Amino acid sequence: MHPAKSVILFTTASGAGYGLMALAILFALLGNLPAEPVLGLAIFITGFGLVTGGLLSSTFHLGHPERAWRAMSQWRTSWLSREGVISLVSYLPAGLFALAWVFLGDVSNPLVQALGWAGIACCVLTIFTTSMIYASLKTIHAWCNFYVPLGYLALGGATGAALLSAIAHFYELGDASIDAVALLFLIVGLGLKLIYWRHIDTTKSKSSAESATGLGSMGKVRLLEAPHSQANYLMQEMGFRIARKHADKLRQIALLIGFVLPALAFVLGVIFPGGFFLIWLAPLAAILALVGAMVERWLFFAEAKHTVMLYYGATAA
């Protein structure tokens, strides 16, 4: 699949933003983060900024971005529509909780706490529905599996927790539990990516040129001549190819930058607590996690093969 920059930015930024807000609300409700107005303002400006920017960038991939709102009417059957609806709904509970945090400096009110739990649920559900846009596509073997939703949730949690840690430590309000959760998400995310890549490397789609054309009973099917002389839209969007050696190198980069180095930063922060972690390691871990997530997301699209390419000479999907 063609790795469009707008979709890569959308899935990375919105996942990090929702992960940041969900974890910030959770730690505030559990008492691990104080309801300091300045801290809350920094968290929710960053969170809503990432979410809004990501959602807006996703419309750039559409032929008519001005019609994007119409997609929400298909929520009964479309995961894309459900994602759009839930992403907008999430602004209400998360936004009201943010107002209570910033202007009241108190989140102990039962109504505010109920809004907080609703905000967490909406944030997590939005990340899940985003992942299901891809996991529901049976025509793309690399996406149609349960590793995709798990990976999206883990990556959103990892980047969100890394951002939360950086912001909290900047205001000298960091908590060891936040760093521990960030480290946990990074480890889980690393494991899931390795399992996911093994899955797409060792399994194939049930579709083949024989099943696609219905000529399997006659023997092996191969393309005799291309249906047209120039590449069309399907070949450009669905037929993107990446060399195996380049994919392997990018996988190593994604693992190192997105998971290993941020995890090492949090480990060093635990061993050597104090100003050094506050000034350097927490922000560095957040930046590395976001850059690594974008490399991983580029690979997520680039390595996917659509079954339509079986009609253009591909031997497998």
What does this structure look like?
This protein has helices at 5-30, 37-58, 79-89, 91-104, 110-135, 147-170, 176-202, 209-213, 233-238, 244-271, 275-302. The protein is mainly α. The chain has a single domain (5-312), classed as Up-down Bundle (Formate dehydrogenase/DMSO reductase fold). The radius of gyration is 22 Å and the shape is globular.
Please render the helix and strand layout as text.
Layout: H1 5-30, H2 37-58, H3 79-89, H4 91-104, H5 110-135, H6 147-170, H7 176-202, H8 209-213, H9 233-238, H10 244-271, H11 275-302
Search tags:
single chain; 317 residues; mainly alpha; Formate dehydrogenase/DMSO reductase fold; 0% strand
What is the residue-averaged pLDDT? 87
Largest sheet: none
Give me the oligomer status: single chain
CATH classification, class level: Mainly Alpha
How many discrete domains? 1
**Content of β-strand:** under 5%
Class of secondary structure makeup? mainly alpha
- Show unreliable segments: none
Topology-level CATH name: Formate dehydrogenase/DMSO reductase fold
Give the C-alpha Rg: 22 Å
**CATH architecture annotation name:** Up-down Bundle
